[in-house]
Amino acid sequence: MQQAPSAPLFPIFPSTAALPSPPPVPSLFPSAAALFPSAAAAICAAPPPLPPSAGALVPAAAGGGAALPSFSSYPQELVPKPAPPPPVVPVAASARASSSSSDDSDADDRSRRKRKKRGSDREGDKEKDRRKRSDEKKKKQKRKREEREKEKEKRRRRDGRGRRRRDEEEDEEARKRTKEEREKELQIERRLMREDVRKPAALWLTEPVEYAHNRTTHEPPHTHHRTRHHIR
């Protein structure tokens, strides 16, 4: 035996049938039909019927479909209009102007290239001349330096031979001079020795200073300290 479902003890949500219906809310944005009645009527209206010439202008699609409507069946304000053609310029005048401008630019370019080439050629010639002059100067300096070295070597060799010869001659003269001087000194010593032997002792006090200084011979023992310097 089935029992009827018992009612909930604590109904949270009451039945929607017991609630009253809400009042209608006014619309903030009116409909397009209210704003544009003519456009809404034109859009909702049926399309205009095709003219009898539409089938001849636009053939039917392959497979037995209906013929497409032509632009003549639509209002003229909806048909797109072609863009206006560009302004026509006389061909001769434009070609002449473009050719003259191109000729002028080509002539300017050619003259500029010629000037640049002449300038570069002139600069290149100057550089070549400068290098040539510097090379010639270096060669001349090298040649002069080599000549100076050769002259120095010749002079050195000549001076060496002459110096050796001069040294030999000076040595020979020195030997001769020393020999002659030694002979003279020996003669003087012999003469002084002879004079000192003959001279009495009292004459030692009156002998000249040079004689007293240059005396190298043997003196008597009792007069060897009695010189004019000692007396002074």
Automatic annotation (TrEMBL):
Which spans does this entry mark as compositional bias, Basic and acidic residues? 120-152, 173-186, 212-222
Compositional bias, Basic residues, is annotated for: 153-164, 223-232
Q: Where is the composition biased (Low complexity)?
A: 53-73, 90-102
Membrane-crossing segments per the record: none
UniProt-annotated stretches for the region Disordered: 45-186, 212-232
Give the protein's recorded name. Uncharacterized protein
